[in-house]
Write a structure and sequence with these properties.
CATH architecture of the largest domain in chain B: Orthogonal Bundle
Number of strands of chain B: 0
Oligomer: heterodimer
CATH topology of the largest domain in chain A: MetI-like fold
Low-confidence stretches of chain B: none
CATH architecture of the largest domain in chain A: Orthogonal Bundle
Distance between the termini of chain B: 55 Å
Helix content of chain B: over 70%
Number of domains of chain A: 2
Radius of gyration of chain A: 24 Å
Largest sheet of chain B: none
Structural class of chain B: mainly alpha
CATH topology of the largest domain in chain B: MetI-like fold
CATH class of the largest domain in chain B: Mainly Alpha
Distance between the termini of chain A: 44 Å
């Protein structure tokens, strides 16, 4: 028995080392980015690669963020950060609200045409976003809708989110709703006081997914935003590269600045986030 | 007119239902359904955006015919197919093996999974920028390849043969964590007694993987095949940032060509027609897999 267990443990340690090494390779790009973001411009290209620089050089970050005396020019990174956060949070709030309302109705309320409408929703999930990109661009321009509104107006409703919330409410027993009906509460009160509290974990999952979609969105902002004051982080990053091609240490500091907050948000809420992804997958 | 109590209740429950979905419906109608319809109309026109809004002629199916003799389009289509046909199986097989190994043999499961998941949640632009530098002659990737014995590796992103594979490698890297997470949650729901029975019958770990795990996980694999196919067919940001479709048309993909046709050359009609071809391809792939699943997916 003992040798069997010893053999098992040996395999476990061996595989942990192999897979752990693979995991380390996978985060190598990030480690290299962090390391390069703290170097002087010339040292980034020095060979062999110095993974842990002898010095810590935070000036790169100060320059990117335009803080302190060493900053040479304003790359408006702070503004881009604010823009990204603004769009992400407005869309998060909007789509969680609209999805929870409609998801509940599609799952639990009875009304004419409900199933047909839901089928239509499912059908539109198949349409790639590139199909609607060109008409949206043309219509927004024709109506004079500019700036963040072009990202927020379509972002307040997400079909995937509606689908996710509907799937969640489907598995809630009908008795929960009926207890409210018996008490004489209106449908809206039932939704607000009974359903939303139990759905909070699912709403948190959806919130994290929507936040990350918006934070990482590239094609839509690229097409719709024309003024640098409106730029979100991804656009600010590409803009940054065009302006400071040779200073790779600054580019790396900028990329790190864009990535680290998302990592923190994710690590804090990873349970919810993964639950949301999996819910979409297993029942999708 | 007075409604009978029954009818009044029915009307009320209908109206309540509509009130709940109204904000959602408005959004879908304005920003998905109407644009879709408009896109379909545009795709039958010769609309050049520089001539102004709505200034177009209907040319029937001309766009849909012309594109097949447009080498930029056919090249981008071939590249997109090549991209997907390699990226999808590579991502899924790698994820399946790693997810099973982590679940069965590893200590520190969560930190390992989270490390592998990092690329997936990362801002695609930041990631693409880092990889451009990874692939530069002084970047870690080139250094690694040289350390492994390839003395004069190509300029990955500047080489017509290697540009697209380089981006494919990065895409597998950034998607594999997602597939691992999905597989992991499915693995946790596997029936333990089947494995115990197999163990008693003397099946070794590989046989258990080959005959039980792959079978049990086939619905998850099916889901991942469909979703990763759809996302890899729509690859855009890495191409736009890392190669701009070049050198030549060697890494041009469908969505990048749609993007340049519409927003660099303002050929709205032509670009819309191509976006519908994209839809038709995605739809066809999903349907073929849907029908094919009966052969290999066991529920």
């Amino acid at each position: 028995m003992l040798t069997n267990r010893a053999r098992k443990n040996f395999f476990r340690i061996l595989f942990t080392i192999i897979i752990g090494a693979f995991a380390l390779t996978m985060i190598t790009p990030f480690l290299w980015m962090l390391s390069a973001s703290m170097k002087r411009a010339l040292d980034v290209m020095a060979l062999p690669i110095d993974w842990i620089p002898d010095y810590f050089y935070p000036d790169n970050y100060m320059k990117v963020w335009n803080i302190g005396d060493r900053a040479v020019r304003d790359y408006h990174f702070g503004l881009a950060y604010f823009n990204s956060l603004k769009v992400a949070f407005v869309n998060l709030a909007g789509s969680v609200l609209t999805s929870t309302l409609a998801g509940y109705a599609f799952a639990k309320l009875k009304f004419k045409g409900r199933d047909l409408l839901f089928l239509l929703y499912l059908g539109t999930m198949m349409i790639p976003s590139q199909v609607t990109l060109i008409p949206k661009f043309a219509i927004f321009n024709a109506l004079g809708i500019k700036g963040h509104l072009t990202l927020i107006l379509p972002g307040l409703v997400t079909i995937t989110g509606t689908f996710l919330m509907r799937q969640y409410f489907m598995q809630i027993p009908d008795e929960l709703r009926e207890s409210g009906v018996v008490d004489g509460a209106s449908e809206f009160k039932i939704w607000a006081h009974i359903m939303v509290p139990v759905a909070k974990p699912s709403m948190a999952s959806l919130a994290m997914i929507v936040f990350l979609w918006n934070w990482n969105a590239y094609l839509e902002p690229l097409v719709f935003l024309s003024n640098w004051r409106q730029y979100t982080i991804p656009l600010a990053l590409t803009n940054f590269i065009e302006e400071s091609v040779t200073e790779y240490n600054l580019v790396m500091a900028a990329a790190s600045s864009a990535l680290i907050p998302a990592f923190i948000v994710f690590l804090l809420g990873q349970k919810f986030f993964i639950k949301g992804l999996v819910a979409g997958a297993v029942k999708g | 007119m007075r409604l009978s109590p029954h009818k009044a209740r029915l009307l009320k429950s209908n109206l309540t239902g509509y009130a709940f979905i109204l904000p959602n419906i408005i959004g879908v109608l304005l920003f998905t359904l109407l644009p879709m319809l408009y896109s379909l109309i545009i795709s039958f026109t010769d609309w050049d955006y520089t001539k102004g809004f709505g200034n177009y002629n209907f040319i029937g199916l001309q766009n849909f015919i012309d594109m097949w003799s447009d080498e930029w389009f056919t090249d981008s289509l071939v590249n997109t197919i090549f991209f997907s046909v390699v990226v999808v199986p590579a991502t899924i097989i790698l994820a399946l093996v790693i997810a099973v190994l982590i679940d069965r043999y590893c200590f520190a499961k969560l930190p390992i999974r989270l490390a592998m998941f990092m690329p997936y949640i990362s801002n695609v632009v930041a990631v693409a920028i880092v990889w451009v530098m990874m692939y530069s002659p002084w970047g870690p990737f080139t250094q690694l390849v040289q350390a492994l014995g390839w003395e004069n590796p190509p300029q990955w992103l500047g080489d017509p043969t290697w540009a697209l594979p380089a981006i494919m490698l990065m895409t597998v890297w950034s998607n594999v964590g997602y597939a691992i997470m999905i597989y992991t949650s499915a693995i946790q729901g596997l029936p333990k007694d089947a494995y115990e029975a197999a163990e008693i019958d003397g099946a070794n770990a590989f046989q258990q993987f080959r005959y039980l795990t792959i079978n049990f996980l086939s619905p998850t694999t099916f889901f991942l095949v469909i979703t990763t196919f759809i996302t890899s067919f729509q690859v855009f940001a890495p191409i736009q940032i890392m190669t701009r479709g070049g050198p030549g048309s060697s890494s041009n993909v469908l969505v990048y060509y749609i993007y340049t046709s519409a927003f660099s050359f303002y050929k709205m009609g032509y670009a819309s027609a191509m976006s519908w071809i994209l839809f038709i391809i995605l739809f066809a792939i999903t349907m073929v897999q849907w029908h094919g699943q009966k052969k290999w997916v066991s529920y």
